From TrEMBL:
<protein>
    <recommendedName>
        <fullName>Dipeptidase</fullName>
        <ecNumber>3.4.-.-</ecNumber>
    </recommendedName>
</protein>
<keyword id="KW-0378">Hydrolase</keyword>
<dbReference type="InterPro" id="IPR047804">
    <property type="entry name" value="C69_dipept_A-like"/>
</dbReference>
<dbReference type="Pfam" id="PF03577">
    <property type="entry name" value="Peptidase_C69"/>
</dbReference>
<dbReference type="GO" id="GO:0006508">
    <property type="term" value="P:proteolysis"/>
</dbReference>
<keyword id="KW-0224">Dipeptidase</keyword>
<comment type="similarity">
    <text>Belongs to the peptidase C69 family.</text>
</comment>
<keyword id="KW-0645">Protease</keyword>
<dbReference type="GO" id="GO:0016805">
    <property type="term" value="F:dipeptidase activity"/>
</dbReference>
<dbReference type="InterPro" id="IPR005322">
    <property type="entry name" value="Peptidase_C69"/>
</dbReference>
<dbReference type="GO" id="GO:0070004">
    <property type="term" value="F:cysteine-type exopeptidase activity"/>
</dbReference>
Amino acid sequence: MRNKVKSSCTTILVGKKASIDGSTMIARNEDSEKAIEPKRFIVVQPESQPKIYESKISHVSIPLPENPLRYTATPNADDSIGIWGEAGINQANVAMTATETITSNSRILGVDPYVENGIGEEDLLTIVLPYISSAREGVTRLGQLLEEYGTYEPNALAFSDNDEIWYFETIGGHHWAAIKIPDEAYVIAPNRMNIDTFEVDSENTMCSEDLVELIENNHLNPNPEEALNLRHIFGSATIKDHHYNNPRAWYGQKYFTPEIVQDPMDDDLPFICYANRKISVEEIKFVLSSHYQDTVFDAYGVGTDQQKKSFRPIGINRNIQCHILQLRNDVPKSISGIQWLAFGPNTFNVLVPFYTNVEQTPARYSDTSTSFDFNHPYWLFCMAALIGDYDYDRFTDIYADYEQESMASFRNKQLLADAQATKDFSTDYLEEINQQLAEECYNRTVALLGQMVEKGATQMTLRFDLGD
């Protein structure tokens, strides 16, 4: 089995009444155990979906339903260790992001151990997303699969449609719980068990049928006199959480709800949160790229060496792709789904708003090379991040201009395309717009690299003030 590091990714969820435009948004950084792991962006056609799914890690074999839907995915460029579809929107406008690696504890694992030949992150998008027509159906299908096949690792994931967002966490080898995110709320979820207060008998929650019985019969609840708190019962509160997980939730909550003063190492930071304003795509991207800016914990900041190394940042060298799956409610259903996508480390990349109701994606994003290739955005963004890390203060203004100008241009192109597609819809037209966006992003990023080289060249160590 692959030695998968259980310490990656950050998730942000934004309900439709919490977003600036009334859309639902589920977003995540996919972070690898390696600094370099190229990704692709593809459309999976129904005829390409397997009839029987075979996992390359656990070797579990799963018969799949008939009549799958078309869907987008962001698989690994190297599929020798599995598909790792990670994120996508299907033709019914249902989005799925999978997964956020979470924590567990020995109490639940002693009762319900992991299943070595079960399902895991490698498999989940492929065996769930093509077969659901709502976010609730996603929860139901995944819950059934977990109960039947079990899992070999702890994971959290999210489903959304135009109306609802559901957050789902695995519990032990076969159990699970899911909660509907309030429309007015947002969530910042790092690599820990995140669900806290949980009402079993509610239309806004779903879980394994025997979850309460499991807790009571095995004495799993450390606070039996209080309301069920799944984080306390099934999760962890370790020194690693204090430095690796909790600070990321703290910083995201500090950004969206700055009036609340909290401790970055607090194990009980709230799960469901409410912002002091409506949340935009740009703000989600800022948090997913963040490294504790304007605090002493910023790795590029003015704190002491100890402070700058205290907490794991959200934007990190192991970001391999960032996505925001947006389902819009102010446009026709045919153009509602947008997969905002950025490859590579988030500190020097940019999101591109790709329409998902298409038959194919741009070659620059679908055909990523497994080795360095200047023609593919993944590798350009890795190069920009590497140069930018060399002297962050020198290059950050150049990058800020690049990101703002790029996003403004992409949004303008999208606005015009929305108007045209509303009058005369065709998937061919959406594919043409996606192609234009991909090429513009590529050209702008090449220009960014040129600016960085020109500015950085004047500060090379091998220089001398007297010249001839």
